[in-house]
Amino acid sequence: MNYIKELNGFYKFNEARPLTANVHALYNYLLHKCNTLAWPKSFTLTNTMIMATLQMPKTTLHRVRKVLLDNDIIKYTNGYREQCGTYTLIPFEQEEKQEATENARNRHGTNAKPRAKPHSAPQTGTLYKQNKKNSVTDELSLRDNSLNTNAVPIVSEEVKEQPRKELREILAGTYVWPE
Length: 179
Prior knowledge:
Number of helices: 6
Shape: elongated
CATH topology of the largest domain: Arc Repressor Mutant, subunit A
Structural class: mainly alpha
CATH class of the largest domain: Mainly Alpha
Number of strands: 6
Distance between the termini: 54 Å
Helix content: 40-55%
Oligomer: single chain
CATH architecture of the largest domain: Orthogonal Bundle
Strand content: 5-15%
Order of helices and strands: HHEHHEEHEEEH
CATH superfamily of the largest domain: Winged helix-like DNA-binding domain superfamily/Winged helix DNA-binding domain
């Protein structure tokens, strides 16, 4: 699963079928927990933990969970007696792939394969190096001339050293203030 794709899929779904703030809170909490647990197929959570975290009464939790179940966003299995309930997130990512495949087949006939994307013109703008853990190679990314808050700009050592040099001069009393 991909956290951002799942979140975007949920909000796309919400545009078509608006959901309440409590439904958003529960889904975001479940998505966060699934991500924290390294994306297991299913995971368990106590109602008490969810109610305390989201500051939600038990009746609201049951009602909100039913909305997610009815819309096939999650699967939930009640725990037996004193056991926790089991949650399974149904990926939106697969749904998007299926929609894209179906749309392509509808446009080009049932046996046609989707066409490959045409190559786009090279993008211009600031070059950012992505912070990716567990990546064999570092990838460079261009982002439509907008600031990517998860990226680290590539800067020279001279630029990195400049603030330190100024700080040393200020502390030594030799810094000349710009006019």
